[in-house]
User: Fold alpha-1,2-Mannosidase from Ailuropoda melanoleuca.
Amino acid sequence: MTTPALLPLSGRRIPPLNLGPPSFPHHRATLRLSEKFILLLILSAFITLCFGAFFFLPDSSKHKRFDLGLEDVLIPHVDASKGAKNPGVFLIHGPDEHRHREEEERLRNKIRADHEKALEEAKEKLKKSREEIRAEIQTEKNKVVQEMKTKEKKPLPPVPIPNLIGINGGDPEDNDIRKKREKIKEMMKHAWDNYRIYGWGHNELRPIARKGHSTNIFGSSQMGATIVDALDTLYIMGLHDEFRDGQKWIEDNLDFSVNSEVSVFEVNIRFIGGLLAAYYLSGEEIFKVKAVQLAEKLLPAFNTPTGIPWAMVNLKSGVGRNWGWASAGSSILAEFGTLHMEFVHLSYLTGDPVYYKKVMHIRKLLQKMDRPNGLYPNYLNPRTGRWGQYHTSVGGLGDSFYEYLLKAWLMSDKTDHEARKMYDDAIEAIEKHLIKKSRGGLTFIGEWKNGHLEKKMGHLACFAGGMFALGADGSRMDKAGHYLELGAEIARTCHESYDRTALKLGPESFKFDGAVEAVAVRQAEKYYILRPEVIETYWYLWRFTHDPRYRQWGWEAALAIEKSCRVSGGFSGVKDVYSSTPTHDDVQQSFFLAETLKYLYLLFSSDDLLPLDHWVFNTEAHPLPVLHLANTTLSGNPAVR
Ligand code: DMJ
Assistant:
C-alpha cells in the first residue's frame, strides 16, 4: 500500500510524516502535537476504508474447502443467477423496489390469513370429543400410509433388459462331475431347509442352538438376509419351490422403513445385489422394486462434506456415521469402493442417474488424490477428504475396491476404460510393493502398513487369484499370460493354506515368516467361517484353464466342509482349523449360501451356466448382466422389456 500525498491543512505545507528510525530527530520535532493528531486521524480513516472495502470484495477462498485439488467435485454448485440463497445481501432499486414491497405485503397478508385459519381450526377441534379427534388422527394416518403405498407401487420406467444367456442348465456331461454337483445341491438344501425351519425371517441361522442369528451389519431388525442372499443360488440350482417361498417372504415382510442402523456396504452387496440378481434371473418385478426402495434409503449416507458415504446409515432417520474402530473417523476403501456395480444397474433400471452420479463422484475424487507409492490406503476421512492411516491390503478393508474397478469395465462391455486404467495402475503398484515369493516358493500378497510390508495374507485376499485371472484378458502390454499365471500362483498358495491344516479348511489369516509358510500363528486367526474366497478363485481358474486340479481342490474343500462344518441343524463355522476335533462357532453365514455353495455348484457345472462374457458377479457372487450401454443413456430408455 502506498502512502497518500498529504494535503496542506491551513495553507502551510506539512512536512512528510516520518515513521522511520530516529535518525532525523529535527524533522519530528518540527511537527506540532495537534497536526500529528489530525494526520493520525486521516490515516486511520483511510485504513478503515481499505479494511472495509476488503470485506466487500468477493471471497474466493470461502469456496475452496480442501487443498487436494478437488475443487470441481467438492465446490457446491450454486447457480449465482438465481441468487436467492441469501436474499438480504441484494439491494433492490427503482420499479423492482415497488414490486418487492408489493410482494412483501402479499406475503404478510398470507401469513396473517394462515394464522387466523389455524386459530379457527384449533377452536373447532376443541369443540370435538376426544373420540372424534382420535378418529380424525387415524384417518390422517391412513391417508399417509395409503399415499406411501401408492408411491411404492409406482411402476418403474421400462428399460431394455440385456440378453440373458445361460440362466439355467449347466448339466455336466461327466457322470462323476454330475454327482458332485448333485451333492453340492443337497448341501444347499440342507442349509436352506434348516434356516427355513429354525431361522425363517431372521438374518442368519444358529444351526446348533437352532434359532435365528444376526450381527450389527444388518442393524437391529430381521431383514431375512439369508433369504435375499440365497435366492439366485436357489434359482440356478433349479430349487424353484424354495425360490418361490423366499419370494413370498420378501413380498409380505421385507420392509426397509425400520429404525435400524445398517452397514451401507453389506446391505448393498447382499441385499441390493441379491435382489437385482433375483430380478434379472426370474423377471419378477418385486425384486427390482424392493432393490430400488432399499437404495433410496441408503442415499442419505452420501450426505457428507466430500460425498464419500458413511459406513452406516439409519434406514429411518437417514443419519450416518462411521465405525468407531476405523482410523481417524474414516470410511473404508472396500466399503465405499464397492457400490459401483449395483448403483450403475439401479440407474439403468430406474432411469434415475442419481445412483450413477454418486459412484462416479467417488471415483473422480479417488482419481485426483495422491497415492503413496501408487497404493490406495484403506482409510479415507469423509469430512476432510484426506487419507487416514497408510495401510493397504488386497484382503479385508481393501479387497473388493480393486475387484469393482475391473468389474466396472467388464460390466460396461469393456467400454469403461477409465475403470480399467485405474485397475491396471492399482494392480501394478500392488505387484511391485505387496506381492512376494516365500522361501519355499509360494507367491503371497502381503499388507503395507506405514512403509513396512507385513508378510501376512488373509483368507479374504485369496479372492485375488480369481481377479487376476478374470482381468488377464485386456491387460496392459498383453500381459494376459502373466496375470493368469499370477492368479494360478495365488490359488496354489491358498490351497496350501488349506492343506496344511488338520481339517483341510483354510485359516482366517496366515503368515510367511522364516520357516512358517501359509500357516496361522495366532490363535485368533485360526478360524474358518464358511468363507468362499478360495473356492471362488478355483472356479475362475477352472473357467479360464480347465485344469482339473481346480475341480479336485474344490471337491477337497467341499468334503472338508461337509465333514467338519455340517451339523444336523445346518452348517457352522469352526474355531480352529488346526485342531482335529472341530469346535463350532454356531453361525451359518448368509454368504455360505450366496457364495460358497454357488461357486462350488458352478465349479461342477458346464461353462454355459452363467457364462462370463455375459455375466459379472458382484462381490457377494450375485450375477449381474453385462450392460451394453454404448448406444443408450442412463437417463431413461423408451424400449420395453
Ligand atoms: C462376503 O460378504 C463378500 O465376499 C465380501 O466381499 C467379503 N467377504 C464376505 C465373505 O467372506
Summary: Residues 1-35, 48-94, 634-641 have pLDDT under 50 and may be disordered. The pocket of 1-deoxymannojirimycin is lined by residues 400, 460, 531-532, 591, 595, 619-620 (CB under 6 Å). The domain at 178-625 is CATH 1.50.10.10 (Glycosyltransferase). The radius of gyration is 33 Å.
